[in-house]
Design a protein that fits this description.
two-stranded antiparallel sheet; 9 helices; 10 strands; globular
Length: 242
């Protein structure tokens, strides 16, 4: 199987096929140094969120990298506390990032009885050009069907947890049928799967690291993995899953 190093969203936007996740990284040196190391190693895809509390550090590393902005794919997310004013939530994230636009803006989590408003505001943000792509995160098939029932613009991405221990193949297949790209967060099982005996045995057989095996597993299933690491050596190593 030949794996491409980028995927094309249904609006034609190209998204790098592996990204760096910065969940649970502290604002400041930890996040900034991790993003800088990732960009230096060849990553061009960084995934953050308002909830993570580190958008400022992500934006700072992106701006100071010396890499043209249009070569770096930056994602952030709308948290449910901002559902009453999604436009303000987006503007605050963009201000913290201090970049001209984001490449992907996601509704971070569905909540019961969510109104049409958050998605409709995302559509307006997309149409303004301040978000090059829009999508959802942690959405089930039912949640997506609800959005599709009123959306003018279908979600381009659904970001879900996806690894050998926690996966929903049916949801991945459903998303593919709707031309929605699935991003896989926690592809290493929050670090626990790199110590799994079977994963270690496979890694030894192929002379790869356990993390590379798990990232490749996510790639082979047609998802875009977002491994998290603040260790420069591991960050670089994870990119070798191709």
């Amino acid at each position: 199987m030949t794996l491409g190093k980028e995927v094309i969203l249904h609006n034609g936007i190209r998204m790098p096929a592996i990204g760096l996740g910065v969940w649970k990284m502290a604002e400041g040196a930890e996040t900034k140094n991790a993003v800088a190391a990732a960009l230096a190693a060849g990553y061009r895809h960084i995934d953050t969120a308002k909830l993570y509390g580190n958008e400022r550090s992500v934006g700072s590393a992106v701006r100071e990298s010396g890499i043209p902005r249009n070569e770096i794919f930056v994602t952030t997310k709308l948290w449910p506390t901002d559902f009453f004013d999604p436009q303000r939530g987006f503007e605050e994230s963009l201000k913290r990032l201090d970049i001209a636009y984001v490449d992907l803006y996601l509704i971070h989590w569905p909540v019961p009885l969510i109104s049409k408003k958050p998605w409709q505001i995302l559509e307006k943000i997309y149409e303004s050009g301040l978000a090059k792509s829009i999508g959802v995160s942690n959405y089930s098939e039912h949640d997506i069907e609800k959005v599709l029932s009123y959306a003018k613009i279908a979600p381009m991405v659904n970001q879900i947890e996806f690894n050998p221990k926690n996966h929903d193949f049916a949801l991945v297949k459903y998303c593919a049928s709707k031309n929605i790209v699935v991003e896989a967060y926690s592809p290493l099982g929050r670090g626990g799967l790199i110590r799994n005996r079977t994963v270690i045995e496979i890694a030894q057989r192929y002379k790869k690291t356990p993390a590379q095996i798990l990232i490749r597993w996510a790639l082979e299933h047609g998802t875009v993995p977002l491994p998290k690491s603040s260790n420069p050596q591991r960050i670089a190593s994870n990119l070798e899953a191709f």
